[in-house]
Amino acid sequence: MSAETAVKLQKVKKYSASLRTLFMCLFVVGAAMWLISTILALEGGFVHAGFGRPDAVYPEAIVRIGSTEYRGDAVSGGIRTLSIVYFTLNVALVLALTLHLVQLFELYADGKIFSADNVRQIRRIGITLMLFPALSALGLLVPLVAPSEGTSDGARAVAEFVGSIQSFVMGFIVLVVSWVMDVGRELREEQDLVV
């Protein structure tokens, strides 16, 4: 390895270590926010079910699942549970994506640039991106489960649909890139064996 290549590899390791730390922090913050939000949602369920102070005036309960919003008496225990599950699935996908990025940059920080593990992480990133449309579709199906109790926002539904298509396309592109990287890695390994 030439001196110039060694310097470039050190830069890749340094920046990758910084990005790994950044994504790990984002993962921890995201997990903490999910936990706090879930506790608050559960707390709100207890308050609106009459377990709070009887003399207190509580704001009207508002729950959003995908493009459907439920208010006041429409926020039943089932709707609240469905919203927590939907929110948790969204957060789980974002945290999974962040964790895959942590693991990818961990490999780069260790100097593993073209390995089967790198390809595996990149493939996982692509698959995770492709799961967002399925979750978006689940949110669009909510009015079928509880049609009379919710109000739907058509513009928001269209925006979510467009965003999910973009996520699917990006995931597909990342999968193609991982496949090309895997072929390149195999060719490089074959060359190393020949030499």
Task: Give the secondary structure arrangement, pairings included.
Layout: H1 3-51, E1 62-65, E2 68-71, H2 77-109, H3 116-145, E3 151-152, H4 154-194
Antiparallel strand pairs: 1-2, 2-3
Helix pairs in contact: 1-2, 2-3, 3-4
Walkthrough of the structure:
The chain is mostly helical. It has one domain (3-194). The relative contact order is 0.12. Helix 1 packs antiparallel against helix 2 (77-109) and helix 3 packs antiparallel against helix 4. It has four helices and three strands. It has a three-stranded antiparallel β-sheet. The longest helix has 49 residues, at 3-51. The two termini are 15 Å apart. Strand 1 and strand 2 (68-71) form a beta hairpin.
Quick structural gist:
Helices cover 78% and strands 5% of the residues.
Sheet-strand content, in percent, reads 5-15%
Strand order, main sheet: write it out: 1-2-3
Strands, total number: 3
Q: State the low-pLDDT regions, or none.
A: 46-52
Overall outline: elongated
Number of helices: 4
Number of separate structural domains: 1
Judged by helices, strands and strand pairing, the structural class is: mainly alpha
Rg over C-alpha atoms, rounded to the nearest angstrom: 23 Å
What is the string of SSEs from the N terminus onward? HEEHHEH
Main sheet makeup: 3 strands, antiparallel
The average pLDDT value, as a whole number, equals 82
Q: Give the termini separation.
A: 15 Å
Overall helicity? over 70%
